Queue: 3 jobs
Job 1
Amino acid sequence: MTEISWEDAFCGEGNNCFRIGTDAEGKGYIAVAGQEDHPLTDSREALRTLIREIKAGKADHLL
């Protein structure tokens, strides 16, 4: 099993909490807090890009 280093949970309005993690192989992970055993995974660069795009407001239409 891959060892994932999880960051503290990020919680938005309405207590939608997510956790971001990485592993020693350079993969990035994102999971709903409490469901870390079912994460989405991709490269660290893809995760960085996702976070940058969200911060830039490109996912606001999903809210």
Job 2
Amino acid sequence: MNTHFKTYHPYASPFDPCKPILEKAYSTPPNLYMGFQPPNLPQFTPLEALRAGTLWKAFYDPWFSPLEPGKGGLPQ
């Protein structure tokens, strides 16, 4: 199953002076998982489209930080 949040584990050197971040997360846009744009996709109104950054609702991605689990980020 495709998810919009991916995680990876960067290399942590034993000689780093700071505590390493063991897991990092990033968001992938929804258009990566659509091979083509189907006809008759639902659309935002013009004002909503300006706020969302896209005309089509299927391509909207409200990115939230992984540190904000209540807003759709990664579960802690």
Job 3
Amino acid sequence: MINTPSTTTLWRPTGPKELDLVRELDWRAWPPRLPEQPIFYPVLNEDYAVRIARDWNVKYDGAGFVTRFEVDSEFLRRYPVRQAGGATILELWVPAEELDEFNAHIVGTIEVVHEFR
């Protein structure tokens, strides 16, 4: 019998440039952070991701996308949930230097679930 790890669903609002980089990585990883981006922050709530993609990414990038992906739940325990505002504004803060290890724990592929222009 194969033991499949339990996963947690995460969402990430993103603009077109980051999405192009995810596509180049075959939808299996997030690209390295830029020097001015010390934290990678996936979110725990689809509605929160929609608000960022629709209200922020469209305004600044011309388009916004919400992605959904699964990560090994046991691995995610190392990252405390951060409340970035209201009760449903929840994020994980992954230090940029840990992103390769985080990517190694993505189960399946990253998929686009919403698009805004």
